[in-house]
UniProtKB/TrEMBL annotation:
<keyword id="KW-1133">Transmembrane helix</keyword>
<keyword id="KW-0812">Transmembrane</keyword>
<dbReference type="Pfam" id="PF13564">
    <property type="entry name" value="DoxX_2"/>
</dbReference>
<keyword id="KW-0472">Membrane</keyword>
<dbReference type="GO" id="GO:0016020">
    <property type="term" value="C:membrane"/>
</dbReference>
<feature type="transmembrane region" description="Helical">
    <location>
        <begin position="57"/>
        <end position="75"/>
    </location>
</feature>
<protein>
    <recommendedName>
        <fullName>DoxX family protein</fullName>
    </recommendedName>
</protein>
<dbReference type="InterPro" id="IPR032808">
    <property type="entry name" value="DoxX"/>
</dbReference>
<feature type="transmembrane region" description="Helical">
    <location>
        <begin position="82"/>
        <end position="103"/>
    </location>
</feature>
């Protein structure tokens, strides 16, 4: 992120911060089920896809790891951590899009499309 012009760098930090916050919440929810309402909704989605609690836990671990890598990257400007975190988010976003398009509506896929787009922007910014 150090080589980007100042405006682009700030935009990338904003995107990275948004993704880190979102996936810290989403990942921890899948692991710890701290909100019964959200957990019920997520469980219903995953059951419809033929996935169980173990899958939800695994997805939560991936999302939490991605968020941790991005937070570390923001604090230390560690480019590889940012790229790894963005790649993990892109992976979960692509998976979410696949299942939403197969079993649900386009509306349900919008958050995954947005997080996937954000992670692509972080990946591309690291390559320029």
């Amino acid at each position: 992120m150090l080589l980007l012009n100042p405006i682009r760098r700030i935009l990338m930090i904003i995107i990275a911060t948004f993704l880190a916050i979102f996936f810290t919440l989403a990942g921890s929810q899948k692991i710890f089920a701290w909100s019964a309402v959200v957990f019920k909704i997520q469980s219903e989605f995953l059951r419809r896809y033929g996935l169980g609690r173990g899958h939800m836990y695994g997805i939560g671990m991936i999302e939490s790891t991605a968020a941790g890598l991005i937070i570390f990257a923001i604090l230390t400007e560690h480019e590889i951590a940012l790229q790894l975190g963005a790649a993990l988010i892109l992976t979960t976003s692509v998976g979410a899009c696949y299942f939403h398009f197969k079993y649900d509506t386009f509306k349900d896929a919008i958050p995954a499309i947005l997080t996937g787009s954000g992670s692509i922007s972080l990946l591309v910014s690291g390559l320029l």
